[in-house]
User: Fold this.
Amino acid sequence: MTRTFTIFNRELASYFTTPLAYVFIVIFLVLAGVLTFFVGDFFERGQADLQAFFTFHPWLYLVLVPALSMRLWAEERKTGTIELFLTLPIRLGEAVLGKFLAAWFFAGIALALTFPFWLTVNFLGQPDNGVILAGYAASWLMAGAILAIGAAVSAMTKNQVIGFIVTAAIVFILTVAGTSIVLGLLRAGPPRASSALSPAPASSGISRRSPAVSWTCATSSTSCP
Assistant:
């Protein structure tokens, strides 16, 4: 764990030595505010919650998190430092875990900086803070899942742009898979094979008698059809 923590500190510090960290945080906060208060009709809804805030997180992460994960391994492969990096006395699992945790922790910092939204909701009303806290935890876990996909894609290419595009495409497919449009198309799909192979209904020549008719025929001397 000591070597993992060393890689974690190295990677986390590398984010703040370049403008990438600050640009990422500013863009995330600006887009989150615009989508929450303007696109999400926060004030028109008249409800003290952050549903509008969390609704747009998958679409925010669709663009921003792949930009964060595309450099995890692609940069090492492009500059040729991955060979030197892997010759250090560390295990491959420790290197992967250290890089992933650094990126995930940085995403958590950007998410935590949206706490003014939480303060705004508490100032305007009395929200269920437990639900909001659970929403933050779920959002951070979703960012970690996308980072895991991005790290895997970044390890397979030297080009950061390709890593970004492929990760964004995978996340887009996973995001739209749960939308009402896609679910509606799946429900309106081709008929099931079981229904196509089911036997035809009984012939119209065989009639079904009601219990009253059957009892009348049994007690009467007249013939029944």
Summary: The chain has one domain: 2-181. The CA atoms of residues 69 and 147 lie 6 Å apart. Residues 129-154 form the longest helix (26 residues). Residues 2-181 form one domain.
